[in-house]
Structure formats: structure tokens, C-alpha cells
Amino acid sequence: MATDTVVPDVKNEDSLRGFGFALTAYLFWGVLPLYMKALAHIPATEIVAHRILWSVPVAGIVLLALGRMGDIKAALSSPRTVAMVSLTATLVTINWGTYVWAISAGHSLDAALGYFINPLFSIALGALLLKEKLAPLQIAAICLAAAAVVILTIEAGTVPWVALTLTLSWGFYAFFRKTLPVGANQGFFLEVLLLCIPAALYILYLETRGEGHLYRTGITDTALLLGCGLVTALPLMIFANGAKLLRLSTIGIMQYIAPTMIFLIAIFLFKEPFGTTQMTAFSLIWAGLVLYSWSMLRQSRSR
User: Fold this and answer.
1) Fewer CB in 10 Å around end: N or C, the chain?
2) For 137-158, what is the mean pLDDT?
3) CA–CA separation, 87 and 73 (whole Å)
């Protein structure tokens, strides 16, 4: 998911085309657990390696079609840009690895929780690192999210590390991604380009040892692994183009689509346990998101 990686256009107006792009991307991300569940018998590290490797040609073709490959050459000539891309690439790899493992290990609800918390964490991050002033409703929303984490920690006897890892990795990824002097599509291509060599070497290592799943375990696994590039790169690039045609408040509301779909899939299709404690925690998160959304809409109207 990439809900915070693109700043909308300065015009700050909604368009039907932008809404269509964003909705398509969120629906893609919402059903992605079904795709990853089909790969649950494959180690998460191998799946992430394939997501990286096969995203390179997909993203490269898109940039060639847009005539933006010159941006890549300019970015690679800047040591600071390369260093920043290396940092964001590391964070997104942590996020992908945690997400893939969570789906395959039966922790889809934790993944949904992480992405529900993410916008509230981004607000807190802006206040701490950018000294952004928080509205009272936003402070209350962050407190509700913190209370939900405390409840889950007390009940389980350990912190909900899957949700927190997804929240922290994606929150800091989005924060640092905004500082990159390149567009969203170019930034994504640079990230997977830097990661593709270790990913390819890891896949080659697994295949030579007879532990890989690209050719050894049948055409279904091969097709699903090769398709990882499409299901990774396309939604992200579709969203990047849609975000430029929407207001920030519209994106803020729409970003709940994917975690809501993940939540429903986890309960009704994957049959993951959902008891009183989980209901209490999610209720607090949802209440916090309502306050966050209302505050966002009020700010948008006042502007």
C-alpha cells in the first residue's frame, strides 16, 4: 500500500478520473491478501525477492512509455538521492516482508490493524519531527490508537509487533519518501532497481540449492511468482497518478478502503479469531479514524 507517498497537485481539486485511479489501486490492495495467501507455502523472503525483481521491468516499461527515464539517470548521479532511495527501499522491504509473512501465518487482522493505525501515526510523526500543530480532535484520535495498542498488549502479553512494524515501517517510508526530489513512479523504480541485484542473487541461490519455487514446484507457483511484479507495481503507479488529481482530504478518507477489505477477508474468508479484545481495540481505532477524518474535513472546508 502507498497512501502517503504522493502529494496531490497544487490545484487541490477532485476529479472523476483521479477518483477512478485511486479506487482501482485501493481495491487492488484490498484483495492482495488473496493473492498472497495462494503463496502462503512459500517463505516470505522468497516472495519479497520476487516482488522486487519482477517489479523492475513493469516499472521500467511504464517510465519508458511516459518518457521519464531521463529522471532516473539524473537521480542516480546524485549521491544524496541514492542514499535517500536506499533508506526508503530498506523500509519498504521491511514492510513488504512483514505483510507477506502476516498473511501467510494467519495474522491478516494484525496487518489490517497496522494500516488502520498508519494515518494516525503519520499525524503524530508530523507533530514530533516537523513540529506540525495538532488539532484537539487529532490528539484525541492518537490517544485512542495508543489505547488500542495497550489493550492488545495486555491481553496478549506482548506488543502487537506485526501491526506496529507495518505502521512504523510505512509511516517512516512515507515520511522520507516525501523528501525525494523525484516523482512517485520514478522513486518506486529507483527503489526496486537498487534492490533487484540482491533479490536476483537470493533467488538464484535458492534455485541452485533446489529450495526455490520458481520452476521446481509447478506452473502455478511460477505464474504467481512472476505475477508479483504486476500486483506490486501496477497499483502503486495507478495510485500515484490518481493522487495528483484528488484533494488530500479525499485520499485521507479513501485510504480506509484497503484495510477494511483486509479486515473483512481475514474474518469471513480466512476465519481468523476475532474476540472481545480485538473488537474493543478495533473499535477504538475506528473511533480515532472518525475523529481524524472529521478534523481533516473541517480543515479542508476552512481552507
Assistant:
1) C
2) 91
3) 19
Residue 14 has pLDDT above 80, yes or no: no
**Amino acid 11: pLDDT:** 52
Query: What does the CA dihedral 109, 115, 121, 126 come to, rounded to 10 degrees?
Result: 170
Beta carbons within 8 Å of 59's beta carbon, 6+ residues apart:
185, 188, 189, 192, 233, 237
pTM of the model: 0.89
What the block records as the C-alpha cell of 37 is 495467501
Tell which wins on pLDDT, 299 or 142: 142
Radius of gyration of the chain (CA): 19
Spatial CA neighbour of 292 closest among 117, 126, 120: 120
Per DSSP, the three-state class of 11 is coil
Q: Which residue has the cell 506540525?
A: 132
Residue 243 to residue 214: CA distance in whole angstroms? 35
Give the torsion sign (CA, 111, 93, 180, 190). negative
Cell reading at 17: 478520473
Number of other CB atoms surrounding residue 7 within 10 Å: 13
Q: Which amino acid is at 43?
A: P
Contact 22, 254 (CB under 8 A): yes
User: Which residue type sits at 248?
Assistant: L
> What DSSP letter does each residue of 71-84 carry, written as one string?
HHHHHHT-HHHHHH
Residues near 2 by Cβ (< 8 Å), separated by ≥ 6?
25, 174, 184, 235, 236, 239, 240
The answer on pLDDT for 7 being more than 60 is no
**Cα–Cα distance, 282 to 150 (Å, whole number):** 12
Residue 1 has what pLDDT? 53
Given a cut of 70, whether residue 4 has pLDDT beyond it is no
Residue found under cell 495467501 = 37
